[in-house]
Design a protein that fits this description.
156 residues, alpha+beta, Immunoglobulin-like, 2 domains, 5-stranded antiparallel sheet, 2 helices, 9 strands, 17% helix, 34% strand, rod-shaped
Length: 156
């Protein structure tokens, strides 16, 4: 053993060379054992709530910013059925807001929206087809014409 410590290679002690090689190998093995994978992780959060309207014969998913149409005569009411599904495993809160944005002259307060059974909120994860409804009513003296409401279903 003492011969090992006294040996030299090109003037450099062999014990020092051996120590440096062992240190480099150990560091390489430890690094290789710890660093199994490195790279990027891209995450995309997708909308989990789907809203559908009943058009009288089938359920329809309206386009974002699209229009749902109802026809009434003075003195009539109509229930507009909708349903929501939550494909997330977690619960989400869903809220509906509406605003009358256009009406014929003299039509103020003549056509109203009433929230009937609104979807459960928070909407539990994995919920499929939870139904709700909105009642649209035209008073008997409602002027003929288009009444436009802006509906907004939002997730909180």
């Amino acid at each position: 053993m003492s011969k090992f410590f006294k040996g030299k290679w090109r003037g450099i002690p062999t014990a020092l060379i051996t120590s440096l090689v062992l240190l480099a190998l150990t560091a390489g093995i430890v690094y290789a054992a710890v660093n199994i994978w490195s790279g990027k992780l891209d995450v995309t959060v997708e909308e989990c709530v789907t809203l559908e309207w009943w058009n009288g014969s089938t359920w329809v998913v309206p386009a974002q910013g699209g229009t749902v149409t109802a026809y009434l005569k003075p003195g009539e009411s109509k229930d507009m059925l909708f349903r929501a599904s939550n494909t997330s495993s977690g619960e989400v809160s869903v809220k509906m807001n509406y605003t009358l944005i256009e009406r014929p002259s003299g039509g103020a307060g003549k056509v109203t929206l009433t929230e009937g059974f609104i979807i459960e909120t928070p909407l539990p994860g994995g919920t499929v087809n939870k139904r709700g409804d909105i009642t649209i009513s035209a008073s008997s003296d409602a002027p003929v014409g288009e009444y436009k409401f802006e509906l907004n279903f939002s997730r909180h």
